[in-house]
Design goal:
By secondary structure, the protein is an all-alpha fold. It is built from 6 helices and no strands. The protein is elongated and about 55 Å long.
Length: 127
């Protein structure tokens, strides 16, 4: 995302991680659409399809692009992109898949015990 400072551990000039690229792309779609977050939520009621995306609450579009949050669920990204009403859906889902893959890689590194291996409160807390 242009104008964004590097995150800790990221070298200046290096490519931002997939989650930040996804957020940047979604914010650019919103900017191109000229819609407020409230209008995006309202549009989601109109553009919600039969594929399970439907409409979203008024706060969902803002949460989709909140940087400290985890990668949003696919349904929320679909509703956001469709509510913007501008091209860019394919790129949004390419970036979403990359962000999810990155997120899953971090989760695998936590090394939490398998559910069958929970024996103590510490094990439960680790899960």
């Amino acid at each position: 995302m242009p104008g964004t400072r590097p995150r800790p551990g990221q070298h200046p000039g290096s490519r931002p991680p997939p989650h930040l690229r996804l957020v940047g792309h979604l914010m650019s779609l919103k900017e191109r659409s000229g819609c407020s977050y409230a209008h995006l939520a309202s549009n989601s009621h109109i553009t919600g399809g039969t594929d399970g995306t439907g409409s979203v609450s008024a706060t969902t579009p803002k949460r989709v692009v909140d940087l400290p949050k985890d990668v949003p669920v696919e349904r929320a990204v679909t509703a956001y992109v469709r509510a913007c009403g501008v091209s860019g859906e394919e790129e949004a889902f390419r970036l979403w898949r990359a962000a999810r893959a990155e997120s899953r890689g971090r989760l695998a590194g936590l090394r939490a015990p398998h559910v069958d291996g929970i024996r103590t409160r510490a094990d439960l807390a680790a899960v």
